[in-house]
Automatic annotation (TrEMBL):
CDD domains: EVE (cd21133)
Organism of this sequence: Pacificibacter maritimus
Name of protein: Putative RNA-binding protein with PUA-like domain
One family name in Pfam for this protein: EVE
Domain of life of the source: Bacteria
Domain EVE: 2-133
SUPFAM superfamilies linked to this entry: PUA domain-like
Length: 142
C-alpha cells in the first residue's frame, strides 16, 4: 500500500463535502499538473491519503482511500488529464497544521514541506505514521 496527500481549498471542496459522498467517493478532478497526474496514475485501490485543507486552514484534517483507479477527468475534454476517486475513511482526531508539520524535524523531507504547491503528493510510510501520531489518530489500515 502507498500513501498520499490530497490538497483542496476548503471553500472549493471541503472535508465535510468529501464525507457526505460516502462509500461511493468522489472524483479528485481538476488537477492540471503533470507530476500530480502521474502520481494519480500510480495509485492503487485501497491506497490511503491525507485530506489537506490548503490556503486558509493549512491543515491535514482526515484520511481518505482511493476507491477508483486513474481514469479520464470528467471536467476536461483533454485526454491528458486523469483523476482517481477517493472516499473519506475518518477524520484525524486532531487536525495537523502545516506549521506543526514544518516544525517537526522528522518531517523535513516530506513533500508538503518542500513542494507545498503540489496538489497530489506521495507520503512515505514513516511520514504517515508520524502525522497520524501528531493527529492523535491510529495509523492502522482498516
Amino acid at each position: 500500500m502507498n500513501f498520499w496527500l490530497f490538497k483542496s481549498e476548503a471553500d472549493v471542496w471541503s472535508w465535510d463535502q468529501q464525507v457526505a459522498k460516502g462509500d461511493q467517493g468522489e472524483e479528485w478532478n481538476g488537477v492540471r499538473n503533470y507530476q500530480a497526474r502521474n502520481f494519480m496514475r500510480q495509485m492503487q485501490i485501497g491506497d490511503r491519503g491525507f485530506f489537506y485543507h490548503s490556503r486558509a486552514d493549512k491543515e491535514i484534517v482526515g484520511i481518505v482511500e482511493v476507491c477508483a483507479l486513474s481514469h479520464p477527468d470528467s471536467t476536461s475534454d483533454d485526454p491528458r488529464w486523469d483523476c482517481v476517486d477517493i472516499k473519506a475513511i475518518r477524520p484525524l482526531t486532531q487536525p495537523v497544521s502545516l506549521s506543526k508539520v514544518k516544525s517537526d524535524p522528522r518531517l523535513t523531507e516530506m513533500v508538503l514541506v518542500n513542494n507545498s504547491r503540489l496538489s497530489v503528493q506521495p507520503v512515505t510510510a514513516e511520514e504517515w505514521n508520524i502525522v497520524c501520531a501528531l493527529g492523535s489518530t491510529e495509523p492502522q489500515v482498516d
